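User: Hi! I'm working on a homework problem where we have to compare a predicted structure to a textbook description. Could you give me the structure for the chain below?
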Amino acid sequence: MPIMRRAMTQTARFGFAVLFLAAALMPFGATLARDMPDPGIDQLIEQLGLRAAKAPVSERAGWSKPERVIVRGDAEQVDALGPFAPGVELVPAPTLEDAVAAAAGADAVIGFCAEALLDAGADIRWLQLPYAGAERCVSIPAVAERDILVTNAQRIYGPEIAEHVLAMMLSLTRGLHLYAEAQGRGVWERELIPEDKLWELEGKTLLVVGLGGIGTEVARLGHAMGMRVTATRNSSRRGPGFVDYVGLADELPKLTSEADIVVNATPLTPQTRGLFDAGYFESMKPAAYFINVGRGPSVVTSDLIEALEAGRIAGAGLDVTDPEPLPEGHPLWKAPNVIITPHISALSDLRSGRLWRVMAENLRRYTAGEPMLSVVDVRRGY
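Assistant: Happy to help. Predicted structure tokens:
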């Protein structure tokens, strides 16, 4: 098992390790035709609800089979991608600086997006992002000006982020973080929290703001806990069967007033920046909780702190903040009944496998001219 051992070693050294490639190629690598997809990828695509573009990428203006693709990783990792792009030179770039240095003549980049990279790579036509948030990448003028195709990791992080949200919901509604503090003081404080503040989730109303890939997974877990689930989305009222009601953006105030727990899972756009302000927190129930796994700037931090201190909402769970990283001494650290995690909800033991299987599949599709997965609408920013 030398390939597996090497992959596991590299996983410890790089956040974008290709552990899946060692595991996936071991069973069928000897017999897999070099232009064949991962035989389990269809199941993963269905499981995650990934969407393919309607048209093959070969119909995009300027597309041709790539000759040179830069990949974030070292030589050993990048070699494992070879079966997905026969005849293509895959250039390893462990750092952004390496990618910029190698950008001249590259047709595509997997794992990086930066203005300096696009300046150095005038021929780059496709960018595969290793994360879901695309707002910084699509804000680079060259992306729109050169009609660069951008694909991202939307929905790949949904399962672990949803479980993080569930953990925050349970901690807030059962007071686990407060009992942990008492444990740290060595105090047995059974009546620390009044019984009527120790909620059961069953029968409570969960509002998911942003019913995308992450929001859908949050809604699924909420439903599994016996909650009534409502949600908002911009595009339509359609939603999975486990969501009781899907409203449009203009219904947010009404749905907020009915919710016991509000979860923000929206991307950062001009419409969502500062969405959760003093007026929003005023519309929440005083006993309701607010959880943010979307983007920090969607929340007006000073308004959130004021709402917490005034008791206008019961508490908050934050995996993203504004500013970020949250500096030492910031008043949010000491706001009442707040759980803060340092933007780690997308991390898990299974994340790299899903991410790299999907990115490898997109490399195969781009090389073959097929419809791409998870195409970003550059105009909308997600």
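For your comparison, note the following. The mean pLDDT is 90. The domain at 158-340 is CATH 3.40.50.720 (Rossmann fold). Good luck with the assignment!
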